[in-house]
Amino acid sequence: MAWKNSGAMQICRFLLLAILFLPRGMTSSVLTVNGKTENYTLDTERGLQESLTCAVENHTREEELLWYREEDKVDLKSGNKINSSSVCVTSISEDDNGVSFTCRLERDETVSISVMLNVTFPPLLSGDDFQTVSEGNDVNLVCNVKSNPQAQMMWYKDSNVLTLEKDYHQIQQTSESFQLSITKVRISDNGTYSCIASSSLKTETKDFLLIVKALYKA
Predict the structure, then answer these.
(1) What is the pTM of this model?
(2) Which residues form the Ig-like domain (predicted)?
(3) Which of 39, 94, 114, 209 could potentially form a cystine with 102 if both were Cys, beta carbons 3.0 to 4.6 Å apart?
């Protein structure tokens, strides 16, 4: 029995020494951003400013931190790198929607945590205000749209909901455009076409003036 106890003590001593002399790079440091320990989405609005603070938990030595905006490394000041590091996102715009900021350990970049921005903003519409087309030709009215949350889209003509005719009108919609196509336009297609985008934040309108030139036969 004494031999067995001695063998068990030897094993315990070996395990203790193994733990004490583990390479320092194998310590289980954990990163947090604004107190959160997992990747998360930050809801914000256009025009606001957001501060992201990354901190190292469970560290046994000074740890240098890196920040990335998508794949691009953020330039940090020397006093903003060790154990805790902050980045400030100023003048947030619709272009920041869906952008991820990632904090990583410099010595082991597989240790990381990310924050994705969810930027809410009302519909933003753009496109060519004026188009001239000859009778019998095809025309496309393209309404470029950005919106978060996504907007419900409609086409109006001269202040009335546009009545779509089969094989004459076609509507194509993507996440960033709302297109009205008219096949072989007629003189009666002259008028003001309105692209209307409605979201829970606001309703916006963009007008397109279409002028159809008549064909005169000799």
Answers:
(1) 0.78
(2) 23-114, 122-205
(3) 114
Mean pLDDT of 80-85: 97
* More confidently predicted of 70 and 9: 70
pLDDT band at 28, cuts 50/70/90? Answer: confident
Lookup result for tokens 């272009």 = 95
Summary mean pLDDT of the chain: 89
CATH classification for the domain delimited by 30-121, as one of 3.40.50.2000, 2.60.40.10, 2.60.200.40, 3.90.550.10 = 2.60.40.10
Beta-strand runs (E) in 34-185? 40-45, 50-57, 65-69, 72-73, 84-89, 100-105, 112-126, 130-134, 139-148, 152-157, 160-161, 169-173, 177-182
Asked if the 128-213 domain carries CATH number 3.40.50.920, the reply is no
